[in-house]
Amino acid sequence: MASLSSEDACQHSEGLSLNDLESLLHLVTWNVGTASPPPDVTSLLQLNSLGPTTDMYIIGLQEVNSRITNFLSDLAFDDPWSVFFMTVLSPLGYIKLSSVRMQGLLLLIFVKHVHLPFVRDIHTRYTRTGLYGYWGNKGGVSIRMSLFGHTICFMNCHLPAHMENTEQRLDDFEKILEMQFEGEDIPSPMDHEILFWFGDLNFRIADYGIHFVRESINNKRFNLLWEKDQLNMAKKKEVFLKEFKEGPLQFKPTYKFDLYSEVYDTSEKKRKPAWTDRILWKVKNLCEVASKEGEFPEEENPISVTLNNYVSHMSYGISDHKPVTGTFKIEMKPLVSDPLVTLSPEGEWSAEHDVFMRYSTVPEFPSSAWDWIGLFQVTFRHVNDYVTYAWVEDDEISSNKDSKQVYMSASEIPKMGGEFLLCYYSNNLQSIVGISEPFQIQPSKTPIEGDLPEEESSWLQKPDNPESGGDSEKRRGI
């Protein structure tokens, strides 16, 4: 376990009260070497942890199988790694919030249902650096968002390999920082309140020979190698890296291993072990900024990050890299504390009759004729995993100054019943901005033989996909 040092007091929790929010984030970085997902990731995701529940999983993969046939099929359908993590996490109450793919680079974010209304302004971008920016085998992918009103950016990178390419790695990272969200009305990665930088960064251990490095590892004298780690050396001299922090490297270098073993490279190349797989973070110095803008007293800081643990996972052997995880506690003064939309089902729901729901919005909510309310199973995997939906405008049946009522046809309600959620999707904000409490749908008293499997129903119960805007003529009143 590690925590921020005393010199970082401005970026720690001194100004935060006991009533402030705490969120637990679990970050994963793993070069999977084009392999398929392993049979189990319980330890990787700390699913058996007795501590607080994880609020958000951030999973950054490198060298996901990107052969052209795989890549094209992944564009049309979720890739096997996304499906795998959704299958693991959706039964535990997480949905895939967002993802971004650039050839072998994949970044996935999963979040607990309860946080969905407070995660907004989600944007994804990627930057190619391979072959002078024309090829995406190297580069960076990012997902940025606003969490309870605070800006956070996650950046998964795969930088150039080999001992001699330190300067190229640094140049590429600077290029990625400059190009992500360039020309858009979005802060640059470095201007977010929190920036997480992770991936196969490919920095090596300089100067020392392979025998000294391996002997130091065998004796667990990692500190002898830290001063020659190329990233540690670069952080001391490169201005743009000095604000980045990292936990202590108290685990064995994560590259390069024989497959399905804990034995370092025995091939003819005999690559020297290195900490290529890293997780770093940077907290923007908000004490002075917030004080100038009058948002918080000078002695308080609205957000802090504490590293709880930083470890490798030696039991995973599908590639020549071992995965690395970092668990972080984020404490923040919420700038957003109320959902934009509050909604709930009305009365008893079953397929015996049309059903109704009611919603209300905050005054400043930017509603759209393209907004919709989806019916989801409680174990839904992502925003497109709806069972059915209603357009908030077309299917509205009553309204008053406080709320509006929308209906769904009995023919669209699952006859088998079960536990469900309602989610309000905002077209303008491109995200779920309201979610109901779980509720029961009563099974039909007269089930129809040959009911479609539930996974097929979302494609057939409505003729159009709300994310694509549906029937454009209908929506525009033509």
Description:
- There is one protein chain.
- The protein has nine helices and 21 strands.
- Mean pLDDT is 86; it is low at 1-18, 288-294, 450-463 and 472-478.
- Helices cover 15% and strands 32% of the residues.
- The strands form four sheets. Strands 3-4-2-1-11-10 form a six-stranded mixed β-sheet, with helices on one face. Strands 13, 15, 16, 19, 20 and 21 form a six-stranded mixed β-sheet that branches. The protein has a five-stranded mixed β-sheet with strand order 5-6-7-8-9, covered by helices on one side.
- The chain is elongated.
- A hairpin with a 4-residue loop joins strand 19 and strand 20.
- It has 478 residues and is α+β, with helices and mostly antiparallel strands.
- The longest helix has 14 residues, at 166-179.
Topology at a glance:
Layout: E1 21-31, E2 56-62, H1 68-76, H2 80-89, E3 94-102, E4 105-112, E5 119-130, E6 135-147, E7 150-158, H3 166-179, E8 194-200, H4 210-218, H5 223-226, H6 230-237, E9 277-283, H7 286-293, E10 303-312, E11 324-332, E12 341-346, E13 349-350, E14 355-361, E15 372-377, E16 388-391, E17 396-399, E18 404-408, E19 418-426, E20 431-435, E21 439-442, H8 454-460, H9 472-475
Parallel strand pairs: 1-2, 7-8, 13-21
Antiparallel strand pairs: 1-11, 2-4, 3-4, 5-6, 6-7, 8-9, 10-11, 12-14, 14-18, 15-16, 15-19, 17-18, 19-20, 19-21
Region (Disordered): 443-478
Protein name: Inositol polyphosphate-5-phosphatase K
GO molecular function, one term: phosphatidylinositol-4,5-bisphosphate 5-phosphatase activity
